[in-house]
Amino acid sequence: MKQHVKIEYTKRFTKQYSKLSPKFREQFKKRQRLWLNDPYNSQLHLHMLTGEYAGLYSINITGDIRALYEKINDSYVIFGFIGTHSQLYG
Hints:
Mean pLDDT: 94
Helix content: 25-40%
Number of domains: 1
Low-confidence stretches: none
Radius of gyration: 12 Å
Shape: globular
Number of strands: 5
CATH architecture: 2-Layer Sandwich
Strand order of the largest sheet: 1-5-4-3-2
Order of helices and strands: EHHEEEEH
CATH class: Alpha Beta
């Protein structure tokens, strides 16, 4: 069921996103649409993070690229980070 969600992006996310190849930017758009329609779709591997990113959620964009967001409430999220697993987690 499609949910109505207000989505914002941090400056850091926007900068990281702009450095992605056009192919990966398009893949993010596809995965974001999938997430809006079915946030628990198995392709997304949605999970809450611990440690440095505690409280944020991660979704898979590709095999190696992740997008991290903060859920403010059921209808408002802020995407804060996007990058490869090693870029985000060291």
